[in-house]
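Allow me, if you will, to draw on your knowledge of protein folds for a short while. The matter concerns a single protein, recorded as an amino acid sequence and a row of backbone structure tokens. Kindly check, if you would, that the fold set down in the tokens agrees with what the sequence suggests. You will find the record immediately after this paragraph.
***
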Amino acid sequence: MKSTRAMLMILVSLIVGALAVWLAARWVGEQTNENTVKVVVATIGIDAGAPLQSNMLGWANWPKNAVPHGAFNDLKKPLGRVANTPIYPGEALLEVKLAPEGSSGGLSATIAPNKRAITLQVNEIVGVAGYIRPGSLVDVMVNSREGSIKPISKIILERILVLAAAQDDKRDQTKPKVVGTVTLEVTPEQAEKIDLARNIGTLSLVLRNPLDASVVVTTGAYRDDVFKSTPVQEPQVPSASGVPSATASADATSKPRKAARVTAPSVSTSVEVIRGIQKANVVSEETK
């Protein structure tokens, strides 16, 4: 009888405990739902220039007080839009990351407003051994030799974004790859300057740190700057007062020095002489 009663109490305790856990979980879930909203996120990585499809998007709960500006709450609304920047899995889909409605996919969708794309022909040297990849920032330098212009190398543009290397516009690659062309994102004025510069000289790309926002104004490098030599200074000889004197230095260099006389070291030789029962040491010095 007692064992039956104990088993019954244990069973009732388990039921009450499970019910309490279920009610607590339900209450927490309701509180969470009240403080969150559903936001459209990327379920897979989306490359820049790719049109959005239904299998790329999903839902995620987002805190109400932390919803990013421009987020979507409707899965159908962004379908067919084109991503103008890479979107990573789990990242909220934002209006600012999409090209305007009606834009076609490809490189043209990734060009920022009021910007243009211009392509330069490069080689392994100009392309910094293949380390210039989509997303890199470069400076453009021209080496001018034509006409009456004095030969000069000068940086003409700074912090220019690389949109594509050859036909590759994916920005998540870090492996060096030598390509034949590089496409840059520039303003219309910068495009004009590049077009003129490549017709009066040769262009080079200078890779820079993306975190370096400094702007350096240079005067350019001329041929005389390359071959300019530093004058050789004559050694100074201290004068009698202890202060280096240029005259003393000149006199010291103009007058020949006397050769120092080297005296060979003397070598002593000890000879033992025996006369009868007496011994004597005779020391003689020889010079080599």
User: Anything to note?
Assistant: The CA atoms of residues 32 and 63 lie 9 Å apart. The mean pLDDT is 78. Residues 2-34 form one domain.
